[in-house]
Amino acid sequence: MTVPEVVAEPFARVRPKITGRNAHFWQGGADGRLRLLRCQSCGTYLHPPTAACWSCRSLHVVPEVLSGRGVVYAYTINHYRWLPDMEPPYVVAEVELVEQEGLRLMTNIVECPLDQVRTGMEVEVVFAQHGDVYIPLFRPVTAA
Amino acid sequence: MRGHFEDHVAISGIGLSDVGRRLQRDPWALTAQAALRAIADAGLSPDDIDGVSTYPGGAYPSPGLSGAGLWDVRRMLGLDLRWLSGGSEVAGQIGSVINAAVAVSSGIVDHVLCFRSVWESTHQMDMGRAAAVMGQRRSVDDDAARVQGDREFTVPFGVGHACHGGLLAQRYFYEHGATREQLAQIALVARENAARNPDAVYREPLTMDDYLGARMISEPLCLYDCDPPVDGSVVLVVSRREAAPDTGHPPILLEAVGSTPGIDAAGSMLWARSPRLTPGDVDIAEVYDGWSVLSLLWLESLGLCGRGEAAKFIEGGSRIARDGELPVNTGGGQLSAGRLHGYIQLYEACLQLRGGAGDHQVKPVPEVAVVSTGAGHFTGCMLVSTG
Question: What global pTM score does this model have?
Fold first, then answer.
């Protein structure tokens, strides 16, 4: 795994409301590690955060650190200004994490020219700090 | 199959308000106008209405997405209700109509007024583009602007509504080798139909060059792949079949519903619940087109073309044109008739089955229509016929 990284961005993102259910995801990235809930009974990773395992119905779900690696499942270059402070164009993507088939995060692809993003591209997490939240973004995996 | 509740259900009345961009009219007035039209169309009086069902209910966070709530309509029309249901957690927008159908088949009520009112267009006038996501224009540093619920995992990434469509389309193109020129036909055919529909909002000609040259919203979706917000109200009266008055126009019979989450699952459920009809019997398809790509996904899920073949199926547009083998979105869909949000598809299907669509009537008059609404896990579909 490459060195975990937390970066600053020159614009403001809209932040999520932090709750006991989601704090591991939105604030756990302070050390550069991606955390998701995992069922302690059957091992299924669970996202978005939940109180029970949809697979085995266990209530024993706790945050665990993941590798932060994945592949681009789908992407779109967004050209519309949805938010006053987020200047288009930018890439919105669904990244499928290597730990589990179908385990996907909505995110942005960063540190990559817009026209270079591809389905199946290998990516790794990088966190953008916005106040008290650390937003998981993904960038292409570069050769070590 | 344990009982077939659909056998007891008819759509007895349909009503459409004035519809347009930025009408600057009270959405309650539009709702009442459409409701009174639908009730009269059913051959009923407001005193006969004993149930109300609506999506998404009066308290919905997106600005203008709800023009009236259930209590507003009850009070405006002086309704005496014995069953009621309003909310956003249903099987697609049309899920509120499916709820009504279940209610009348149970015998608890005879006539349910189902309504969907929007006034996004007027509401957004003062708010600008940020309205679609932020809800209110204020600093992102404001703690009150923090997002939760459905928006928690989208807005921090600048994911607007159309981005979901862009992702679906990109993946579809990737898996099936589809092209923008193919996808364009959903928008182009819809516009040809809208040109003949006086209730549609966008009626001027739209060419392939216009489409390919349009500004991108969320690639590969361009402006014409995304439905425009409008003001308007659509109302349907769902009746217990035996209670529906004889009005002279053919009753619209409910044949089957698909009310399970997921486009593919909902389409499968619909046919599993249809004892009499198969996909080959469908004369017209009013398939949801909030983004054009959704129509492709619904055509496949409903078995109207093969898996992964929808883009080829619609290529060139002739198959899905009004005089084609399977006319699609015959009134212009939401892309050209406006975001009347799932109800306009059922309204248009009823109009066509009655032979009442005027200049945009499909000939010969269709006898079986399939209607689908929604995306993601928010999905519902319906098969209707004239028997």
Answer: 0.96
